[in-house]
Amino acid sequence: MSLLVVGSIAFDSVKTPFGEVEEVLGGSATYFSTSASYFTEVAVVAVVGSDFPEKYLRFLKSRRIDIDGIERSEGKTFRWKGEYGYDLNEAHTLDTQLNVFQSFRPKIPEKYKDKKVVFLANIDPDLQRDVLHQVNDPVLVACDTMNYWIEGKRDSLLETLKLVDILIINDSEARELAKEPNLVRAAKKILSYGPNTLVVKRGEYGAIMFRDDRIFAAPAYPLESVFDPTGAGDCFAGGFVGYLANTMNFEESNLRKAIIFGSVMASYNVEAFSLERIKSLDYSEIEERYREFKRLTHFEDLT
Amino acid sequence: MSLLVVGSIAFDSVKTPFGEVEEVLGGSATYFSTSASYFTEVAVVAVVGSDFPEKYLRFLKSRRIDIDGIERSEGKTFRWKGEYGYDLNEAHTLDTQLNVFQSFRPKIPEKYKDKKVVFLANIDPDLQRDVLHQVNDPVLVACDTMNYWIEGKRDSLLETLKLVDILIINDSEARELAKEPNLVRAAKKILSYGPNTLVVKRGEYGAIMFRDDRIFAAPAYPLESVFDPTGAGDCFAGGFVGYLANTMNFEESNLRKAIIFGSVMASYNVEAFSLERIKSLDYSEIEERYREFKRLTHFEDLT
Q1: A206 chain-B contacts, CB cut-off 8 A
Q2: Is the pTM of the predicted complex or chain greater than 0.90?
Q3: Which one is the CATH code of B3-166+230-297: 2.60.40.290, 3.40.50.300, 3.40.1190.20, 2.60.40.200?
Q4: What are the C-alpha distances in Å from A109 to residues A34, A261, B97?
Q5: What percent of chain B has a predicted confidence (pLDDT) above 70?
Q6: Interface predicted TM-score (ipTM)
């Protein structure tokens, strides 16, 4: 089964303690679709400006990503500039230029309307709902959001959440959305807003999934060199949702496997700037790291 | 096999967002030995003042803890006062009165000198070494320390670490000890100082163990109500070292089980102030939570 993602394509300028890059390929839809492309066919709806080079579109195509839904508008592509300190869990945004993304109104091409799995990356919750009104009958809807929308468009976001199966956000977003500092209680509240599954991303501490009263905790892969965390959350979501779209099995045990695949993709992504590491993985590398997650977490049952 | 712990006994005054207690039983040796007592016999070397009530000694004895090494000095018992915000990972110390602990020089009773497992709680590294000079031939030495000694007595601490098998510290201590922000690199450096095993406690994110190139990551048990994190690290160490002292099996797979038992004890401890929750557990409750850790972390192998 194939997967539809609606999100951003951007040029990122990023500084970390380990180096600096200027205007490299980024954006939630880019990271998500590249990561998901290792598991399933992906179709992207996004917008780029007239300055967006063909070579990047060719790259996405080379990953068998359907880019017919990428609209080209007059003007400049979305730009983001950020910096990370030694605490790589938190980005400090230095500059955001929305450019053509400012007036982005996702138009879902006719041929995408029957996609069974939809991922709504972090965009205005009004637009997220607008996308859902354009698609016919998805089996699984997953979405991301951020503090900006939680604070500024709470009511709209709550409307969107009523239509969502899986919400994938980070620690502080979960606490803020639920207005509750304890994560377990926050998760219960969020699940009452609509989603049947909440996945909380915790950066170097991994991810934790809540469904009814079942909880699954996965660590992050311990790395000696984390060069750039930009896009890690979207790569996580891409591996997670991509694996689910490929298997179309939404049972607990398969969701857990999907969390590990998401964690694998995030761990590869942070090993280099932009998409340098994840643009050309072997599937065997993905499987090998999955097995390493098993070795990392396994302990014996009580006898 | 039985276990020797050298550490502090204190009166704690603690404020958390969920309540407040005044001068309740605390201290590293108290938490450690109570937790370890569910797994093995424990002997304690510590000091209390003339104000220390008999009932607390009777409590420790009721847990089959050997208290003959607890010295009673003229003066007041060590007092600590601290506060936690909603971020329960970090204590803010409001007041420390060392009192009789100021001049504590551990004297290991003759009958303890052949103990095979020794835990050096967080005390002056000079004293930690002094303890090791008094015991005969321990098979396993584990120890804790804190930023105060890492900053103030680094050379002495490094001398102690040469004599230690397992170092059990928290995230920020590991980074500071190694002067290295990346935890995997920090661990490698610390293992080069002497210990063959490093266990890093990460509060609500669990624990991670490093040995040669093997890493084991365990989450913390997700709790809806964390009342008071005081003593969680010592309860973790008590369960971890207590289980190892009971089994005397130091293979990787058994160390991993020990990490889970430590995590179980820490998770019970934070459910109430002081030792209220861990003072009277059933062993079946410990085993049940161990099984819950398995359910919390299990995912399928690749087929």
Answers
A1: 205, 217, 219
A2: yes
A3: 3.40.1190.20
A4: 20, 29, 70
A5: 100
A6: 0.94
